[in-house]
Amino acid sequence: MDSPFAKVIKVTNDYEIVMNKGSVDDISIKDNFLIYNLGDELFDPDSNESLGQLEIVCGKAKVKHIQSRATTLISNVVMQGGKKIVRKSSPFSGILGMTTEEEVDLNPATVPFKDVAEGSLIKPI
Fold first, then answer.
1. Distance in angstroms (rounded) separating the CA atoms of residues 46 and 17
2. Which of 7, 30, 35, 99 has the fewest CB atoms within 10 Å, counting from its CB?
């Protein structure tokens, strides 16, 4: 197994973690990372050769704040909310039967990390 680039050293909340790399490790505000845990070892069905361990993805993250030896990361996976049609009645709708329709953007929502914990692994993407 390749050694991980970094590890989670603190889980601040469902959307924010801290890793054990910082500016002395050339972390940049533009960097993106994959947060994962290791699962079972995988084997090729034909050769029975080990293919390494399954990487169970906890989420993707971008840099929020860089310190010299630690970096705060936030989830950068956004679930699009989509659009919906809102029907509005006018004050005269009872008399004239008038309604209007308006398309409204639903706010996108950031997806929380899944099963992330201190010691979860991190690699650049």
1. 40
2. 30
Q: What is the pTM of this model?
A: 0.74
In this predicted model, what pLDDT tens digit does every residue of 33-89 receive, in sequence order? 999 999 999 999 999 999 999 999 999 999 999 999 999 999 987 766 666 555 666
Query: What mean pLDDT value characterizes the chain?
Result: 86
Task: List the beta bridge partners of residue 32.
Answer: 62
Please choose, from the candidates 49, 110, 45, 33, the residue with its C-alpha nearest in 3D space to the C-alpha of residue 79: 110
Instruction: Give the residue among 10, 112, 15 at the shortest CA–CA distance from 71.
Output: 10
Residue 82 sits at the vertex; the CA angle it makes with 31 and 12, to the nearest 5 degrees, is 40
Helices (H), 1-125: 93-96
Name the residue type at position 46: D
Provide CATH code, domain 6-78+110-124. Answer: 2.40.10.410
Confidence of residue 95 (pLDDT cuts 50, 70, 90): low
Q: Name the residue with tokens 């890793």.
A: 19
User: In the numeric block, which tokens belong to residue 19?
Assistant: 């890793």
